[in-house]
Design a protein that fits this description.
The chain is of the alpha/beta class. It has one domain: Response regulator (Rossmann fold, 3-Layer(aba) Sandwich), CATH 3.40.50. Helices cover 34% and strands 19% of the residues. It contains six helices and seven strands, in the order E-E-H-E-H-E-H-E-H-E-H-E-H. A seven-stranded mixed beta sheet has the order 2-1-7-6-5-3-4, sandwiched between helices. The longest helix has 13 residues. It is globular. The chain starts with a strand and ends in a 21-residue tail after the last helix.
């Protein structure tokens, strides 16, 4: 099964589709090792797996089980990006991204955001709600890291500086 990440369409083009990367930790560390990543998922196993994987890559990671804690972490911890499950009890990932997008830019309103979901066929709905990219479950770490790199502009730093645009669409 091929897992693809879909991001918002570029000017005049189709959505960018992320491809596979090398699976070495050194490559991953060079790509995301300087980032602060927030993971939002009600499933403890998924949080633990992503926390460990990103930690091994050198990223600083905060993992929380719900939308309320995610908003607190965005306000206090100021991540470079957040990754959220969509199907969560109570407030789901769609409601979370809408509330984040309502924030002023300096408080997280433009924070790069990636949805991960078993409902990838609903990617348009997630992108329309405010996510910058959607990654299908089961999560392939290479694809997720590639997607993170695509939605984060390392040179701009934390959310106080705003967020960068997405890279140009790849030629297929």
């Amino acid at each position: 099964m091929v897992v693809k990440a879909v991001s918002k369409p570029q000017a005049g083009g189709a959505p960018d589709v992320a491809g596979p990367l090398s699976d070495t930790k050194a490559v991953h560390a060079a790509r995301i090792g300087n980032l602060r990543l927030l993971i939002v998922d009600d499933d403890a196993n998924t949080r633990a797996m992503l926390l460990e994987a990103f930690d091994l890559c050198g990223a600083t990671v905060c993992a929380v089980p719900n939308a309320e804690m995610a908003r607190r972490a965005i306000a206090q911890w100021r991540p470079n990006a957040f990754l959220s499950d969509i199907d969560m009890p109570g407030e789901d990932g769609i409601e979370l991204i809408r509330s984040v997008r309502d924030l002023p830019p300096g408080e997280g309103g433009t924070l790069p955001a990636i949805a991960f979901t078993g409902y990838a066929r609903d990617a348009d709905r997630m992108l329309d709600a405010g996510f910058d990219a959607v990654v299908a479950k089961p999560i392939a770490l290479d694809v997720l890291i590639d997607t993170i790199v695509h939605v984060v502009d390392d040179s701009r730093g934390p959310i106080a500086s705003g967020r960068a645009g997405l890279p140009p669409a790849r030629d297929s």
